[in-house]
Structures are given as C-alpha cells and as structure tokens.
Amino acid sequence: MTAVTPAPPSTAVRPAPAGAAPPGRPAGRSRLRTLAGFAFGAALLFAVAPLVLSDFRLALLAKYLCVAMVAVGIGIAWGRGGMLTLGQGVFFGLGGYAMAMHLKLADAGPGGMPDFMQLYGQLDELPLWWRPFASPWFALPATVLLPMAVAFGLGSLVFRRRVRGAYFAILSQALAAAMVILLIGQQGTTGGTNGLTDIKGFFGYDLDDPVNQRMVYFIIAGTLLALLALTRQLIHSRYGELLVAVRDGEERVRFLGYDPASVKLVAYVVAAGMAGLAGALFVPAVGIISPALIGIVPSIEFVIGVAVGGRATLLGPVLGAVAVAWARTALSERFPGTWTYLQGLLFVVVVAFLPGGLASLWALARRRDVAAQPLRRGRLSLGRRRAERTEVPAA
Amino acid sequence: MSIFRGRRILAGAMTLVAAAAMTACGSKTTDEGGATGVTADVSGDTVKVGLLNSLSGTMAISEVTVRDSIMLAVEEINAAGGVLGKKIQPVGEDGASDWPTFAEKAEKLISEDRVAAVFGCWTSASRKAVKPVFEKNKALLFYPVQYEGLEQSPYIFYTGATTNQQIVPGLDYLKSQGAKSVYLVGSDYVFPRTANKIIKAYATANGMTVLGEDYAPLGSTEFGTIVNKVKSSGADAVFNTLNGDSNVAFFKEYKSAGLSAAAMPVVSVSIAEEEVKGIGTQYLEGQLTAWNYYQTTPGAANSKFVAAYKAKYGADKPTSDPMEAAYVGVHLWKAMVEKAGTFDVEKVRSASDGITFDAPEGLVTVDGKTQHIAKTARIGKIGADGLITEVWNSGKPVAPDPYLKTYPWASGLS
C-alpha cells in the first residue's frame, strides 16, 4: 500500500489546490472563481460555439459533450473513488437504448412497430418489454434510473465482497462485453449490430431540421453544466472527502467506523446515472445507438479521455473527453490514412509527460507563479503535497 | 449570501437561454416538406466526390481494396476528360470500421465538402448508419457490396448483389447438384442472420432440410464445436456466411476434422480472391463461392480492368467482386450525370433507369425503380492457384428483387 496518510480534516481557509478536495467549506474566493468559471463555460457553450461553428460542427460538439458527461461520472468513480470502471459503455448504452426505443416507437406512431422488427424479427406485435417505452413518462426516467439500478445491483454485490483494483476493472469490462453479445444476439428485437438508427423525431420535433438540432445541442450543453455543478457540490461535501479517503486508504476508513462499500456504491451509481443521461442525449444528437458504441473499445475510450484530461479534477475529464474526441475527428479528417498512429502518439505523450492530465497544466503554471513569490512558499509545499496525493494509483 | 444569489442569477440566466432556444424550435415531424438537401458545389472546374471506406480497424483489409478500385475508376474518368467537362476531385475519409463514425464522416462529406456523390461503405451496419444521413441531406451513396436485401433507399444505389442475385442462385445450384440438406454457419451480425432467414424459407419451399444453424462472433477463431456439429449432422452441403478472419479458423478446422469439398462442399458468399489469399488455398481448394464477378471472368472489359489494376497496384494484387462493383459504381454515376446533364441529385436519380455499362462482369443495367443493378449470377470453384473459376452462371443478367417479391416462398419475409 503506497497510500499517503490522508490529511486530517481542518477548517482552515485556503484555496483549493488543483486535483484535491479541500476539506470543509471552500473559501469564498474559490467559490467566486468557480462561479466565474461556470459563467465563462456557459458563455462559451451557449453564445460563442453556436455563433462560430457551422451546423455540422455544432452537432459534433454536441456529441463530444455527451462523451464529456460520461467522463464527469468516471471522474467521480475513478478519479475520486479509485474504481477503474472499464464498462461505462453499459450504462451509456442502457440510457441510449431506452431513449432510442421511445423515439423509434414515437416515430412508428400509436400501435406501430419499428421498421427493423418486421425486417429481421418478422414479429406480428411489439415484444412485451418494449411496450412501456412507448410512454415518455416511463422512458425518460428509465434512461437514468435503469443504469443506476444496474449499477446498484452490481455494485452492492461487488463492493461488499471487497472486489477492487484490477478485478473490479475486469468485471466491469466483462459486463460491457456481455451486453454487446446480448444485443447482437437478439437482432429481431434490438436491431443487432445495426443498433437503433434512422430516428426521425424528438418529442414531435423533426430532427432533420438544423434549428431542432441546435435545440438538442442547447439541452446537452445545459445538462453538462448542471452535472458539473452537481459534481462540484458532491466533491466538496463531507461525502466527497470520505470518497477520497476510501480511495487512499479503504482499510483506515473502515477502522474509523465508516462502511467503504456504501461510499463506493454511491459514486458508482452516480457515475452510471450520468452515463445513462449522456447516452439518452446522444441519441437525438447523433441519431444512432448501436453495440459499436457501448462495447469494450468505446468503454476504454471513455476512460482514456478522463486520463488525458486529469481524472481527479472537476474540469479535467470534460476537457480530456472533448480534446480526445476532437483530436480524433480533426486528425482523421486531415490524415485519413495515418491518424490512428498520431492519436496513439498523443496518448503516449500525455501519459508520459503530463501524468496529471491536461488539467495539471493549469496547476503547473500556477505553481511556477507561486514559486516566484517567496512569502507564499508555505502554501506551495502544501499544494505540492496534496497534488501528489491525487496521483496515488488506485489500489 | 451574495454567492448564493449569484448562483441563482446564473441558473436563471441559463434557464432563460435554454427556454429561448426551445421556443426558437424548427419544424415538427408532422410538417410537410421538412429539411431541404445540401446542393453539391460544382461551381469550379472540378467536382468533388466522397470516398468513405474503413482505412483502419478490422474492415480495413477489405475496404482498402475497394478504395483502390474507386481511385482507379476516378483516374480513368479524369484521363478521359472528366464528368460533364469537370475533373473529379476525390475526398477521402476513414470510416474506421466504426458505424457511427461512418455517419459522422458522411455528414462531413456532404455538408462541409459538398460532394456530388459518395462511394463506399461495406458492412450492412455502416450502411444502415449512413442511410438517414443521405436521406436527410438528399445526397447520393453508391454502395458496392453484396448485402442481405430488404432495403431500398431513394438516395442509395446498390451496385453489389442483392439476395436474388447471389444467395438464391447459390441455393439453386446446390439443389441442382442434388443437395437435400444444408448446415448454416455464419458470423453473428445482420447479414448472416438475415441471409439465413431467407435460406430457411427457401429450404422449406424446396424440400431441403436445414440441419443446423450456428453463429460465431465477428473475429472469433474457435470453431471446434461448430465443425464437430457440422460433421455429425451429415449435411449434404454447408452454406457459409462467415466474414473476415473467422474463415481462416473455420476452414482449417474443417480440413483437420476430415471434411472435404468432395464429401461436404461449402458455399461461401463472403470469400473472394483477396480472402482466398489470406485463408490459404490448401484449405479452400475445390470449395464453392457465389458472386457476380471473378478475376477469371472472360471478356475484353475485364481483361482491361485487371490489367489496369495490376499496373497501378502491383501484379500480385487480385481483383474481386466488391472491387469490381465499386469500380462499376463510379462509371455508372458518370453515365447517369451525363444523361441528366447536371449533377443535381434528383435529376441524376430520374435519369438512372436503363443506364448500361459494359462492366468487367458483363453488361449491367440500372433498374431505376429499385436503384439496384441487373447482374449475372456466377458460382465459382476455388482452384489451387487461388483464383476462382466459374462452374455455372445464370446466362443473362438477373433483374434485382431486393424484397424477393417474385418468389412465392419469400412472401413471409417482408
């Protein structure tokens, strides 16, 4: 165990060093800065992006932001809770399929059936488990609650039995593989490898219309900001402290009288809910959900985005997810033949030279800035110690 | 306190922005007309076309050959003066063997590059993913691979075979050879599963029995169990819809289990010259394939195509059915545009009916109604040299029937 002793809780007022949760309530100045950050983000997403980007690029950004939502969840589960979850695709898929099933049924009209069912399934009537999804009052909550329920079921089994580290990662990945096999095997009712595609409307609005696509983008951007606000509250709460403590020294937390299993379960379920919501919003933005989006490879790609951005920070996962997705698009457009090598190179460079991710660039710059002022050296050492703590590998 | 108020103001502002965005909503699904298409940019003295193939990922090995053959057709057309006096400027994108990426790249080619047509896609899943994109933008896709039928998009031209030009002739051939029972082996995705539904309907109507049906995940190399089941079934023939690497493992296992082409022939629909090279002729010699074109197909047009391809890409590079269909697609598009006298998609579509091209596989004709093409069906036998020689052909081009409407036994399929 290489865990560093967790810092004792203190009420001292100090700015939040990047990458670590300051204990107690954050200082007013930090809060003001966060508020300014949110306002800046909102301005960027709501005003600048729609003005600067073409319809096509804005739709791509909407897609990246959905991936960023999954990343925020992974940031909580992995960055804060130390649970390397390589199967977020499952929850993304559950949310996505729940939404797509509802939209397909809405397209088909009352009593209608999705087109692919007649083609591949030769079914005469809608399968029983599809029926509830015809109602938006069932389908919409299901996009979030279904993934959370699955995560709860799996999590309560796994964390109680103290499965962690590589074993947990392998288990979560196996779940992704199993889900893909299930979906492909049930071609008649799930669309198989094709997935659910050709979605025409979104609650009565024609998705082919660029104006409506823009509306979907605004909903996604707003949701992402709301999730970030929620996450910030969570990691600055008493629970957030406890989660980091469990990550850094699970046995110690147990001896203190807490139940680490429940602490981890909450983080895992929240991450699953965020992935489900992301999947649900991905469907109207991109118009497809398929096993190719939720299997092992995309699940790992979610984690890569978080690693590149910096897993233990609030904004790192978002920046990383958007940067990785954007780089993928940009590189593959410019170098269609060799982009995969360039992307691999990029990952190696980031992991080798910026182990804290893109978000640590900010901390690096600030540390240099602080180092220039001898009077504040005390804070510097503190900052460094806490920054190191966030790099402790998941046990 | 002031902070809380600040947050409330921020939340209020965000709600307002969101509300503003919502009220500025566009058309409803019930509205007539809907979105208008993007028009291709043909203002200069060149015309852009999109090439959408997987250059990375599992499908790259097959799709790169299709890209090469599309490029050959583009060069030929440019050397002959282009289309309507404009040189073709190809814009390549990588679909990366990932179906949603295909959709993203299709959208990019149409709305950013404003291409006049797109050539590409291989798997059915990628076609299904891009189909809504082409329909939304009213843009054209030329799809070059044999597929499972049951589709007819107004914005896709299908230059590969549909089921009645490949699978049904394959079954007819087996029946004429006296096969009374078949065993179905396939990869686990849409094409094999749909093809096998059709095969089962055919078998029921033609007094054949299907002794078993097994699927292996794409890329699977574990065939011990399946081959044992095939062997103990004692079927007269095997119908193989496996794709990619799985074929290597399957045929190795098949041979080591003591099964042979003479005792229990395998008819494959996804093994062309390129794949034969990869699997190894020692495992495949004597086995059957169903396609519309082989490198050995006679005719001046094919000699020219094979010679030009080998001159450009190397003497050891074989030509195959999907490559030929992709090559034909570019030439058919040129003929359609020239008949229409414009690059306008709707006019090109209405000019398409009856367009013919003296293709390497023989004369092909576009059926404007289904947007498929009439093609000659061919059954071939794999030789020791890795080439496939024809053992039977339909004599004349078979009219496309994607929904198998002219086959009474298929009435329950769609």
Return Rg of chain B in Å: 24 Å
- The CATH superfamily of the largest domain in chain B is known as Response regulator
Structural class of chain A: mainly alpha
Helical content band of chain A: 55-70%
Question: Could you state the order of secondary-structure elements of chain B as H and E?
Answer: HEHEHEHEEHEHEHEHEHHEHHHEEEEE
Give the integer mean of the pLDDT values of chain A: 85
User: How many strand elements of chain A?
Assistant: 4
Helical percentage of chain B: 40-55%
- The name of the CATH topology of the largest domain in chain B is Rossmann fold
Q: Identify the overall geometry of chain A.
A: globular
Region (Disordered) (chain A): 1-27
Main location (chain A): membrane
Biased composition (Low complexity) (chain A): 14-27
GO cellular component, one term (chain A): plasma membrane
Quick structural gist:
By secondary structure, chain A is mostly helical.
